[in-house]
Each structure stands twice: as structure tokens, then as C-alpha cells.
Amino acid sequence: MKKRLSFIIALVIICTFFVGCKKDKEEPIDILTSKTWKRATVDKNPSTNPKGSIKYFEISGCVKDDVFYFYNNGTYEIKNPDGTCATQISGFNISKYNLNSNEFYVGNSSAGTIAEISKKQLKFYFKIRGSQSPDQGLPDYLVMILE
């Protein structure tokens, strides 16, 4: 009887460790708002790219220093250290995102799709070519990466 009771107690203790040590999954909003993001040139996870031809956003000039701050209220802000970039124009530097619909807005109108939110990178893309612009020289999507 003592062996059986000891075995049951040991089993309960072991089960408690397995159940109690379960890691909580970090929510996308927590990842997004937990750090300052900067533009990146290396895609650490190409498998999340949209199907079709893509072009990565070119980082040059004053935008290479842009810093992105994401807030819990569904807005984000782009700050540039020298303040001369077009991203500082009123109506553009504070924009919106929507995690429920995976939408990312630039300025007041352009909506992109959020492709990935991870601790390594944030990726979103914009549809460039469609039935309205059949120009074969254009890629289907413009992809922007932040890290």
C-alpha cells in the first residue's frame, strides 16, 4: 500500500512539472510593441513572402535611419533622426495597423498585408501589379522588412 501511495504521489508531482512548465505563447501585439524596429535588407524567412514576383523595398537616402514605434492602440510612428525625410510629413509619420485583418497602412490610404510578426523580423507587402496595371516590368509585390 505504501509503495502504491508513493508511486501515485510521485506521478502527481511529475505531471505537475509537465503541466506547470508550459510556455505561454507570446502574442503578436506584444512582439510588435516590445521593441524599436528599423528597416532591414535581409529576409530571414522568405517562406512568408506572397506568391508571385517580389521586389524588396530599397533602403537608401534618409529612410535608412527611420525608426518605427508600434503602439497598443493600433498606430505606429516613424521617426527619422535628421527630420528631413518624407516620412516626417504630416499625415504620414503616424499611421495605423490592424492585426485582426493583417493590414498595414502607410499614410492615410495605402494598405499592405502583414506577412510575418516574429522576434526576428516584421514583414509586410503591398500589391503593385494587378489587372489594372498589367505592366510586365513591375513585380507583383513590394516587400518591406523591419528588424
Structure, explained:
By secondary structure, the protein is α+β, with helices and mostly antiparallel strands. The protein has one domain: Lipocalin (Beta Barrel), CATH 2.40.128. It has two helices and nine strands. The protein has helices spanning 2-20, 28-33; strands at 37-38, 54-56, 67-70, 75-79, 94-98, 103-106, 110-117, 122-127, 141-146. It starts with a helix and ends with a strand.
Distance between the termini: 60 Å
Helix content: 10-25%
How large is the share of residues in beta strands?
25-35%
Q: How large is the radius of gyration?
A: 22 Å
Q: Looking across the biggest beta sheet, what order are the strands in?
A: 1-3-4-5-6-7-8-9-2
